[in-house]
Amino acid sequence: MTTERPEDASHKKITRRDALKLAGVGGVGLLLGAGGMNGWLQGGAGSSKASTAAASATASAEGIIPFYGKHQAGILTPMQDFICMAAFDLTATTLEDVRKLFKIWTSASARLAEGKFVEEESDNPHLPPGDTGESAGLRPVRTTITFGLGASFFDDRFGLAGKRPAPLVDLPRFNSDEIRKEWSGGDIVVQVCANDPQVAFHALRNLARIARGKAVLHWVQEGFQRTGASDPSGSTPRNLMGFKDGSNNPKVSDPAVADEIVWAQSSDNPAWMAGGSYMVMRRIRMRIEVWDRSSLDDQEATFGRHRHSGAPLSKAGEFDELELDRKDDKGNPVIPANSHVALSHMDGQVKILRRGYSYSSGMDVKTGQLNAGLLFICFNRDPRKQFIPMQQKLASMDKLNEYIAHVGSGLYACLPGASAGGYIGDTLF
Ligand code: HEM
Predict the structure, then answer these.
(1) What reaction gets catalysed by this protein (predicted)?
(2) Separation of 207 CA from ligand 1 center, angstroms?
(3) Of 50, 156, 160, 294, which has the most beta carbons under 10 Å away?
(4) 210-224, pLDDT tens digit by residue?
(5) What angle do CA 48, 53, 57 make, to 5 degrees?
(6) How confident is the model over 410-419, as pLDDT tens digits?
(7) Integer CA distances (angstroms), 89 to 1, 92, 150, in order
(8) Average pLDDT over residues 275-287
């Protein structure tokens, strides 16, 4: 069936040239807003709500998350629907070239966050276009671009070894790790999140393109969660095991909580990381066929939460407090001691900000099974005190380990934000 939605019809009326003229996002919102383009132009979490109203300057502005600021966007930012992230290895041989790369990435990212092409389009027919073009006419849909540096960035190539932050350790090998090189490490990580996979891909592709001669791709990983279209209410997303994931994330909208858990402080070493954060990426394969054959009781005992409501076992509400001391009438803890939440709760003493996405990567040709899992991403102020002890505990005791394998890994120092006129990394360089 080829029913054409009104927005599709409107879409066709826009020529490439029109789109280029309109590439300034404010222009798109203002000029096209009244013309029945709502579905096509809509972005954002809860975007289906926006679809009923004419796209206005305000609706358009909703899709822009400023790139410049004290902190990089994409860390505390409420999660977008898609992620496209990559690690790069530097081929640049001088610090000056590395600096140049961060300068061009910064100005390009600021434009991409506003839904613009990566550089002004030239009409010269003898040159390749300055932008690959697949985002023409698309709104920025809350695009954020976040940069981080891996430990290898601080080796002896650029004279920066003395500047390696102490928290940027080599992650230890955890019990039952099955880490593969092709999903791990890299000199630089670039996390792009947006509410449209094409917009996210476009941003990453163009950042890779303008890095030519200075950096090459090391790995690329993509992830998703339910979208604003399927869940306008914005409830906690479910992971591919069917459980709500993110319910007990710390309330980082409170700046004191974010300072405590996420942001490196000026009193922490090194000073140039103040306002930055440390990102851990773990590609965690789920043995979903095995999981699908386990009973509901077993699944709920594995997480320590009810599948349907997301409530802690023995409780009714998703956001009810975990009662780890509570016993059933036989004297057993109602939340098993080896369950995922009982262990990751860390007695309430250690917290991280989780910001992960599901991934699905076709079929595992060796087993004929779905290759899918969790692109676990978390931010913390010092992984030596937060992620590492938590993962050590989980790796050795978590009942969830029967169903998962960590196959990729990375730790990156996400730089402080840049102000307009500055660039990402300017506190370091
Ligand atoms: C495939 C792997 C994983 C899955 C499917 C998973 C899933 C879940 C689920 C369903 C919850 C309960 C709801 C919530 O509060 O979000 C949860 C909680 C949590 N998870 Fe995971 N998780 C995984 C890996 C990890 C890893 C590697 C870590 C950190 C090392 C971690 C840390 C946490 C923390 C801190 C909580 C909250 C605990 C609390 O209530 O205080 N998770 N996870």
Answers:
(1) heme b + 2 H(+) = protoporphyrin IX + Fe(2+)
(2) 31
(3) 50
(4) 999 999 999 999 999
(5) 105
(6) 999 999 999 9
(7) 46, 9, 10
(8) 98
